[in-house]
Amino acid sequence: MTPSLLDHTPRIAAVGVDGFAAPARAAGADVRQLAWRPPAAGDPALGAKLARLSAHPAVEAANSRALDAIRAVQPLLTDVRPAAEVIPALAGERLLLHAGPPLPYEEMCGPMRAAVTGAVILEGWARDTESAERLARSGGIRFAPCHHHDAVGPMAGIISPSMPLLVVEDAATGRRAYSNLNEGKGRCLRYGALGADVSARLRWMGERLGPSLGAALRARREPLNPRALTAQALLMGDECHSRNTAASALFARELAPDLARQAALGGIEALDFLRDNDYWFLNLSMAASKLAMAAAEGIAHSTVVTTFARNGVRVGIRTAGTGAEWYTAPAAMVEGLYFAGYGPEDANPDIGDSAITETHGLGGFALAAAPAITGFVGGTPALARRVSREMAPDRGPPPRLPPAGPRLRGEPPRHRPPRRRRHGPRTRRHHRHRPPRTGHRPDRRGPHDRPARLLRPGPRRLPGTLVNGGPGPERGPVVAPRARVLADATGPAHALAHGPRRPARVVAATRYAVYLATDHTDLPALAVVRPDAIRTPNAAVLRGPAAPWPAPGTPAAYGEGEIRLGALTVRVGTTPWSAPRVHGLLTAGARADRLAELARVVRARPLDPACATPLRVLRRALREHDDEAVRRAARTLLGRGPGLTPSGDDILCGVLLAAHALGTPAPGIAAEVTAPGAVARTPLVSLALLRHAVRGECVPQAASLLRGLAAPYPLDPDPLLAVGHHSGTDLARGLLAGLTARR
């Protein structure tokens, strides 16, 4: 008798399609279906490419650099400002930013379309939902992802020009990232809710909450450190994505004294709002995560995921090595809890930029830190610990954050595709929280002792400075190396910086800006400005601190991708930013009450006596549509007054911008400021700004004021009036003259 090969119930591991397991299971076998798929979906060529990519030395080295760059970021919450003031593109056209990868209006999901409608009405571009939807469908509004402008927004993620934004800045480089303010619980624009209650809250946030927060932050002795708050919140049950209760409370406690001192601006109202908003910290967590991940962008060969975002239709990622390119797939349905009477069939697919927290190692990667949230998202604390362990990568310590709780691996760093699995012994690899056995006594302090020490920025040294003494008799003279810093330039400045190398000279230098004389007709002066300076339309904006700061007369040059200012080299990025353009902003006219309010403010400020009579003549000529008289008055005002930008020139800039906003150009003034002889009658710096104004380009504060003249919310002229010693006031005076003369 032949012995049986199977003298017990067989246990079978099935690999492949489910149908393979059915016959064996029907015969009584114990069958376990493995969730395995061939690499690259069975494509041999693609599988071979993935195999070559895995553990490639160039990829490993690039990923190491990317993680170092991410960990080096020192995020600080420095301000809250209107979006148009910190994102130049929002000041120049009807542009709305949204969550996720790029998406045309026609393909947007319902919640995002509704949020667009609410933002259009908020900005005063339409008066009701029907006209707002009609404007969006007609192509009268441009849309772009928040991520394209260093910003993030939860859910629909809509950011419009007047919305206040959190400004998070890297203390090491000066780079910035932004997020809108969290609306709290209930009916919100981010969910696609529309109504008088939603609009009223958004207006209050723009008029009271944003200004009071901004003033409180600017009045502090030092900026608020979101990383320090995150470190504490992880030890208090938050994972800083779906649960932000502890972090929001810590934020309110930290800022409460400063807000209380801003009662006139709405500080007490802001405290009441923060007290009831457990979601508040989410937006700050997102902005800080965006800032950190942006530090890895552009590192060739790196596979670190720098962006993970959803727009309700598609989900997209970007990696450090592939830069701005998106890789997308259909957005998935969310598995979670529903209100009574609702289910998955009522839900929209996944939406929002908030997954940027996961790319930074928070949220789902730190789920073990928040056992209380498991009942909300589904699962158990044990499952949360397992998820955090499985999602933890196989390299590198956390980015200077404490463990997420007792006996947990804690907050892991970023994930990266493709994820490889190591086999065999792990040589020279240490446990995450166990120091290597090198003979010295490990640091036995608890996690509560770490954040203050780890999060405090250490002393930094600018390139080109001497630290260990100067020249000595044996060493000879020490030559400081050329200092280098990155910058982003407007279109015209970008074209000069990336053209042929040309000599230049520094004609003026202030604390915030350096001005070079060029040989270009349309751009006679090129500006290099610090990150916190006014962003003029001829500027290259530095991404961080720079030294040595040049003085007038310093030899300079521009071209071949850089601007040289003595010992300082400014490398100009490959992508230009657009200066605000105001053409057509007021084609429907400005509100009479807003003009009266602006006139009241401007007339209370002094005017250079030398400009008083020419300004009256110019107003009369504009009312009478006498182009020749307009040109004579412009000739009189050109260059009149002291300073780099004389008062007469600022007034002419305002008139030119008002004409563009109304859609009625002023050819007399344009002809005068573009005439060849103008270069001898006014400083080059001022002449460059005048020629930008001829094209409708200006500083963000001027564009913001023009939009406010047609908006339903109160006018805020202070940002423009604060520009320069007198420039902002004279620019507003010119805007008022140009707008009232054509009524």
From TrEMBL:
<dbReference type="InterPro" id="IPR024033">
    <property type="entry name" value="OXTCase_su_AllG_h-dom"/>
</dbReference>
<feature type="compositionally biased region" description="Low complexity">
    <location>
        <begin position="454"/>
        <end position="466"/>
    </location>
</feature>
<dbReference type="InterPro" id="IPR021530">
    <property type="entry name" value="AllH-like"/>
</dbReference>
<feature type="compositionally biased region" description="Pro residues">
    <location>
        <begin position="395"/>
        <end position="405"/>
    </location>
</feature>
<dbReference type="Pfam" id="PF11392">
    <property type="entry name" value="AllH"/>
</dbReference>
<feature type="compositionally biased region" description="Basic and acidic residues">
    <location>
        <begin position="440"/>
        <end position="452"/>
    </location>
</feature>
<dbReference type="Pfam" id="PF06545">
    <property type="entry name" value="AllG"/>
</dbReference>
<feature type="region of interest" description="Disordered">
    <location>
        <begin position="387"/>
        <end position="474"/>
    </location>
</feature>
<protein>
    <submittedName>
        <fullName>DUF1116 domain-containing protein</fullName>
    </submittedName>
</protein>
<feature type="compositionally biased region" description="Basic residues">
    <location>
        <begin position="415"/>
        <end position="439"/>
    </location>
</feature>
<dbReference type="InterPro" id="IPR009499">
    <property type="entry name" value="AllG-like"/>
</dbReference>
